[in-house]
Design a protein that fits this description.
Largest sheet: none
Helix content: 55-70%
CATH class: Mainly Alpha
Strand content: under 5%
Order of helices and strands: HHHHHHHHHHHHHHH
CATH superfamily: Hypothetical protein af1432
Shape: globular
Radius of gyration: 19 Å
CATH topology: Hypothetical protein af1432
Distance between the termini: 26 Å
Oligomer: single chain
Structural class: mainly alpha
Length: 258
Amino acid sequence: MVTGINPALAVQRLNLNPYSRNLNQNFGSISHDDHFESQNPERFNNAAIITKLAASNPKINAILKSVGAPFVLNMPDLEKLLQNHCTDVRNIALGISENLPFSLQAKVNTKALSDAAYLHDIGKAFIPPEILNKNGKLNAYETKVMHKHSELGYELLKNTNLDKTTLNLIRNHHQNAKKSGYPFVNNDFRADLNLQILSMADKYSALTEKRVYKEPLTPKEALTIIYTDVKEGKLHPFVFKALVNYVSEQTSLAAQSA
């Protein structure tokens, strides 16, 4: 086991805007719209866009109706999630991928992983605030509603220009190699490398965050819990080792800057 890991990771927003409008001067107009904005997952942090997407897919309302939840958009909590937890998950997921053996790094779909990490909880925009922010353990009904967020996120985004890999990562980020998570998956489902990275990054971030119903765990405590998933066959040891290495790097950087 890993020992000697100290403070929680610092959350740092990524700035991934390589696009310049000056490209049009040299190569002509690429499209009528700004190409970067059309590819940037942060464009979905917009109430008008989400409302339009939700209105165009009746399955979203059907999912909510199936669990007796109202069709209401909760933008304030979504904005907090995207700016904090989801950005943290994206940083951790990319850090894990960079610490994999080179043979496995080649199998990572970096774009899909990055976009899915940022958007994995977008379905929580439709989870009632009294459930999302409950100061205590969720009851059976509340858990059932909460567990719909990954399907809701998938349905919200499935008719956008996001690719299938990204969409499936969003839908299945609470699944694992044992198929014991949610939502339901068929027998041919496989928790590939990208999904294992995303689900582990999400879990590590959640464990080390302070939330209304809990205090943050230390990195060592979080890693101990996640190691249980390795022992149960839900997570590949190489993916876990990459997380350990990433956390160690962040701890060293934090100590140097202290």
